[in-house]
Amino acid sequence: MITKFIKRILRRDPMVRHTLANNSGAPKRIPKKAHRIDPHLLSKNAVKVTHTLQQAGYEAFIVGGAVRDLALGIGPKDFDVATNATPEQVQKLFRKARLIGRRFQIVHVTFFGKGSPEIIEVSTFRALLENAGEHVAENGRILRDNVWGSQHEDAARRDFSINAMYYDPSSETVLDYHGGMADMQKKVLRMIGDPAKRYREDPIRMLRAIRFAAKTGFTLDAATHAPIATLGKLIHDVPSARLFDEILKLLMSGYSWAAIQGLRDAGLHHGLLPLLDHILDGDPESTKANEFVRIALENTDQRIQSGKSVSAGFLFATLLWPDLLRNWKRNIANGMANIPALHDAMDETIATQSNGMVIQRRFESDMREIWSMQPRFERRVGRYPFRLIESPRFRAGYDFMLLRCATGEQSTDLGEWWTSFIAADPVGQESLMALAKNDTSNTGSPTKRRRRRKAKPTAPTADATD
Ligand code: ATP
Ligand code: MG
Question: How far apart are the C-alpha atoms of 415 and 421, rounded to whole Å?
Answer without folding.
Answer: 10
